[in-house]
Backbone:
């Protein structure tokens, strides 16, 4: 969306509409934006009558019939929306000269994600997560396992033993473990728990597998000295519950949804 906005902005001016403040139940959070051009628009601030009103005011600003400013919208009967919240929209006229500043301001901040395992599920996950605000470090102990065409923001690394990569992860990384080997999976989980014990900077550690696999891993990790409280930090199985498909793409969507839930607290 941002690149589409920037490309068109180099050809014609626009009014940038952004959510400056969101109170109560609203369709989009603060920071959401929409770029309004003379004939088109890019992105959304929530749809419905709120967006219709925002589009009208933005085009009035483009045509010099109104001044860009901040406006308050109550999402009640007057707008035909029953959300019940209040949205403050900021209107700003922007042009090609504003592109560098807008790139810095609107570029989504990626969330660090470490993915261990270059198999079918790992590949499907990279394709899904590569479209979301994640910066992915993808690890495998096997040579020539990674595909050639990767989404922007994915960095591949051969690591042998693969668990050694855990110590160099970006602080705050979320971790997904799905290597070709249960032994490798166990070592990566143990390395993550050890790092969590020392630094507490891995907010999510997810392991692919069944409840039976996790029961076996729990026993082995207890033997390595990890407590039940420490083991509770591991999510296994991974993915939002209720999705039963085992195809890699289905698992990838379920896991991506769980990560987004985790990001939102």
Residues:
């Amino acid at each position: 969306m941002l690149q589409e906005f920037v490309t068109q902005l180099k050809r014609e001016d626009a009014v940038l509409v952004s959510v400056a403040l969101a109170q109560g139940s609203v369709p989009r959070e603060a920071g959401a934006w929409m770029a309004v051009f003379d004939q088109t628009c890019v992105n959304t601030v929530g749809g419905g009558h709120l967006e219709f009103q925002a589009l009208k005011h933005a085009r009035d600003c483009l045509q010099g019939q109104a001044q860009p400013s901040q406006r308050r919208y109550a999402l009640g009967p007057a707008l035909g929306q029953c959300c019940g919240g209040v949205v403050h929209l900021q209107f700003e006229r922007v042009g090609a000269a504003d592109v560098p500043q807008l790139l810095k301001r609107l570029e989504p901040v990626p969330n660090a994600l470490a993915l261990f395992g270059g198999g079918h599920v790992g590949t499907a996950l990279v394709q899904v997560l590569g479209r979301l605000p994640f910066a992915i470090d993808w690890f495998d102990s096997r040579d020539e396992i990674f595909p050639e065409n990767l989404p922007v923001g994915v960095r591949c690394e051969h690591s042998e033993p693969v668990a050694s990569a855990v110590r160099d992860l970006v602080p705050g990384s979320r971790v997904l473990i799905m290597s070709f080997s249960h032994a490798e999976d166990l070592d990566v989980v143990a390395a993550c728990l050890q790092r969590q014990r020392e630094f507490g900077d891995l907010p999510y550690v997810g392991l692919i597998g069944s409840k039976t696999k996790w029961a076996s891993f729990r026993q082995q990790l207890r033997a390595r000295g990890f407590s039940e409280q420490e083991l509770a930090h591991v999510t296994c199985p991974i993915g939002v519950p209720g999705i039963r498909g085992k195809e890699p793409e289905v698992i990838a969507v379920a896991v991506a949804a769980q990560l987004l839930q985790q990001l939102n607290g």
Summary: The radius of gyration is 23 Å. Residues 2-106 form one domain.
